[in-house]
From TrEMBL:
Keywords: Acyltransferase, Transferase. It comes from the Bacteria. Its EC number is 2.3.1.12. It is an enzyme of class 2 (transferase). This is Dihydrolipoyllysine-residue acetyltransferase.
Length: 555
């Protein structure tokens, strides 16, 4: 197998250019025309292709090295028949057509103009490139331009360069637009010369800088996803380039950015001299998708959303406070349950349009019955609490108002013909919602027994996914603790939840006098996409009436 030195071809007028990226490593198999390194001057960036197919045996350059025509880039073990081929001429291996080594951008031939007249600026000799695409138009009609000021950026698949003006003056007419293909001699713009005379064309304008131009107009905004905060730290992404200047990036990175709609000017480059590398683009996209970063375009949309534009949440960044400034603190990681339930609660709160109806149930007789039941069944060891009755009442109310026993699936409502009722259980590690399956088929004692078993499992951290899935409707009871009313958060994909607080004796007018009655505060939260306020009020009234007279449940 022959070893072949791959050298930097004729790169035009550039004496020495810096290596800013090495795109291959030892052991890589490369094809002819595959880019090996990226070089950059202050005027252009270009990728140097391999003139030889084979396996990279040695890399002779490193980032930061200066190279010129003839510098050895890599040593390749030539593959197959090519192995016997002699190494390309050391001096100047011909660059693959349209691949690398743009010739210097020679002085554009400015058509001579009469004093005070106009000059048509044309594309100068751009070397080996037959036709290249205009990827940026850097000036607009009315702009005053100087000699050598960049007018457009063109790009092939291997290099990008800016085409400068050969004359100073005011842009009267632009003769190209984004996406046009241009070649040597293509008219770019008509420029009205300054001071009434055409400026002399510079003898030789070098390739214009690839790093000094406004952000690409073609960059489309990346759509934001409303999602939970990322689990991993994401890099901060402030633009590194001064406003109005395009950050350093190789043509392939620019292409990648355009394909993904990433605004390069907003990406922080982590390469040498703030150069943007592929990992920066990836990090930027991840940060935007995670909601950690907004593009300028998204920020512009956000106020519109706030004003009724209909997209984005437009919330302020979370306040960053140095709490230790105000007093001693300690840090405690959220429990696993809190992290999981927190993310679910957040989603449900943000996504579901909640409304909460408050009502009262007179449970005077039911409480007396419950106490009596517990006395009678003391020996059985099953304690009945008000929650068991509420689970039965919930089943009856769901039967009467079926839309409360449903879930949204896009624009379709899935109505359930089963009755699994969840109950919120407070545990040392956080909130969980075990589910009593087929509560319609179970009596008060069986429900009480299952509840106490599930509550114990919850406290011991032993609930499995099956214990917590399939719920139709949930009850969150704070009755053993206290409080009056609250707003329970719907346990998606359910569409309603009943919150219950501590019952207390209250004076109730019976038409003749105030009577002391045991009143249970109810708070029903419901999804306004599925349920209307009138239905919610009826549900509460019916639920309360069942608790007030439990015989009605049999009707
Ligand atoms: N009014 C007055 N007293 C009530 C009551 C009510 N609405 N509900 C229960 N009680 C009483 C019980 O009768 C019991 O009294 P005794 O000890 O005298 O018998 C006492 O309060 C404790 O009841 P309990 O809480 O053990 O039993 P429960 O069946 O009512 O509730 C469970 C079980 C697991 C749901 C409950 O322990 C729990 O974890 N509740 C918290 C739910 C929660 O955190 N919700 C908030 C979710 S949103 O963050």
């Amino acid at each position: 197998m022959a070893l072949v030195e791959v050298q930097v071809p004729d790169i035009g007028d550039f004496d020495e250019v810096g290596v800013i990226e090495v795109l291959v490593k030892v052991g890589d198999t490369v094809k002819v025309e595959q880019s090996l390194i990226t070089v950059e001057s202050d005027k252009a960036s270009m990728e140097i292709p391999s003139s030889q197919a084979g396996v990279v045996k040695e890399i002779k350059v490193a980032v930061g090295d200066k190279v010129k025509q003839g510098s050895v880039v890599v040593v390749v073990e030539a593959e197959g028949a090519a192995a016997a081929a002699p190494a390309p001429a050391a001096a100047a291996p011909a660059p693959a057509p349209g691949a690398a080594a743009p010739a210097p951008v020679a002085a554009p031939a400015a058509a001579p103009a009469a004093a005070g007249g106009s000059v048509t600026v044309v594309v100068p000799d751009i070397g080996d490139f037959d036709e290249v695409a205009v990827i940026e138009v850097l000036v607009k009609v009315g702009d005053t331009v100087k000699v050598e000021q960049s007018l457009i950026t063109v790009e092939s698949d291997k290099a990008s360069m800016e085409i400068p003006s050969s004359t100073a003056g005011v842009v009267e007419e632009l003769l190209v637009k984004l996406g046009d293909k241009v070649a040597k001699g293509t008219a770019l713009a008509r420029v009205k010369t300054v001071g009434g005379a055409a400026a002399p064309a510079p003898a030789l304008a070098a390739a214009a800088p690839a790093a000094a131009a406004p952000a690409p107009a073609a960059a489309a905004p990346v759509q934001a996803a409303v999602s939970a905060a990322p689990a991993v730290a994401l890099p901060a992404h402030q633009p590194t380039a001064p406003t109005g200047q395009l950050p350093h990036a190789s043509p392939s990175i620019r292409k990648l950015a355009r394909e993904l709609g990433v605004p390069l000017a907003e990406v922080k480059g982590s390469g040498a001299k703030g150069r943007i590398v592929e990992a920066d683009i990836q990090g930027f996209v991840k940060a935007v998708m995670a909601g950690a970063v907004q593009t300028a375009a998204q920020k512009a949309v956000a106020p519109a959303a706030a004003a009724g534009g209909g997209s984005g949440l437009n919330v302020l960044a979370w306040p960053k406070v140095d709490f230790d400034k105000f007093g001693p603190t300690e840090r405690k990681e959220l429990s696993r349950i809190k992290k999981i339930s927190g993310a679910n609660l957040h989603r449900n709160w943000v996504v579901i349009p909640h409304v909460t109806n408050h009502d009262d149930a007179d449970i005077t007789e039911l409480e007396a019955f419950r106490v009596q039941l517990n006395k009678e069944n003391e020996k059985a060891g099953i304690k009945v609490t008000m929650l068991a009755f509420m689970i039965k009442a919930a089943v009856a109310a769901l039967k009467k108002f079926p839309e409360f026993n449903s879930s949204l699936d896009g624009d379709t409502l899935v109505l359930k013909n089963y009755f699994h009722i969840g109950f919120a259980a407070d545990t040392p590690n956080g909130l969980v919602v075990p589910v009593i399956k087929d509560a319609d088929k179970k009596g008060i004692f069986q429900i009480s027994a299952e509840m106490s078993e599930l509550a114990k499992k919850a406290r011991d951290g032993k609930l499995g996914p099956a214990d917590m899935s399939g719920g139709c409707f949930s009850i969150s009871s704070l009755g053993g603790i206290g409080g009056k009313y609250f707003t329970p958060i719907i346990n998606a994909p359910e569409v309603a939840i009943m919150g219950v607080c501590k019952s207390s004796i209250e004076p109730v007018w019976d038409g003749k006098a105030f009577q002391p009655r045991l009143i249970l505060p109810l708070s029903l939260s419901w999804d306004h996409r599925v349920i209307d306020g009138a239905a919610a009020a009826r549900f509460n009234v019916y639920f309360a009436s069942l608790l007030a007279d439990f015989r009605r449940i049999a009707l």
